[in-house]
Amino acid sequence: MTQTGAVVLGVETSCDETGIGIVIDGQLRANVIASSIDEQARFGGVVPEVASRAHVDAWGPTLDAACEQAGIALTDVDAVAVTAGPGLVGALLVGVSAAKGLAAGLGVDVYGVNHLAAHIAVDELEHGELPDPVIALLVSGGHSSLVLMTADRIEPIGQTLDDAAGEAFDKVARLLGLPFPGGPHIDRAAADGDHAAYDLPRALMHDPDHLYDFSFSGLKTAVSRLLASFGEEMNDAQVRNVAASFQEAVADALTRKAVAACRDKGVDHLVLGGGVAANSRLRSLMEQRAEGASLVLRVPRPGLCTDNGAMVAALGSRLIRHGVTPTAPGFPATSHMPVTSIAFS
Ligand code: KG4
Ligand code: ZN
After folding, report:
1. pLDDT in tens, 44-53
2. What is the rounded CA–CA span in Å between residue 267 and residue 212?
3. Global pTM?
């Protein structure tokens, strides 16, 4: 294997998506996702055991489809990268076990990597090597944070004190009677709504102890109170306007804090990552505010923001390019992997 020409297979099973991506020489060659979301939707959330069983079922077909899409045989793979955490531990165990077995069978290196770092690294597939340093706004179903990333380190700057941004989207969608996962449904409903219809709170905007931290639980409560004030029935216009006003409040808080972090830390590159980075309003407001602050903004296309295997392969590829030692095969699957740990050593 040459460092630049490596064929890296990435495995993602931290939640309900079985994702396998293949990156060759830094280029995305395959990105296949099997999702158990339809099974989960009827429970209104992800049921861990349903997710784990679905990963077991999806592993073989997803692997075959990824190799076919990339036009390679399994024996062409030079390294396997797999999400080792954070996530649902039973779901992670399926991917980690499968990836270890695959790497051992092929006699290649394995990298047990951090899901959150992979959400940042995926941008390299579209926009080339990330600058050093760069600030990342990471917004997913389980995490919301601002981090400073250098060539070999990730340092937290701020985080949510309660709900993650995606969790807030999912909870508010449920209040509005929209299906799970709520983010894309709120995004669609908001497109025809008025984002100034309701003045919803933005938390921690002036608290010097929490300049870069987020809080979304008060916003969720405010939406709940607003809906109660409508009485029994909500009409479609109200749903669209609440969706738009809520989305605006989240996007406003996220973008203001991301710009402030860049300005205060003297960093002029910002990257967005995680499922909520697929949100159309967050993307457009971030673009507008980044331009106003003379920041260079990098945002992966929406399909690469939500969970997938390409992002794990992208991080594996980056680690190989940076000469990082592969992970010793005894590494665990862990639900609480801090963002500072890019990969197990
Ligand atoms: O990164 P991700 O796919 O999985 C986790 O690592 O959690 O993020 C999933 C989250 C869900 O909460 C989902 O509702 C949200 O991302 N999401 C969105 C959009 N697409 C997905 N939120 C807002 N707008 C979207 N378009
Ligand atoms: Zn994710």
Report:
1. 889 999 999 9
2. 14
3. 0.97
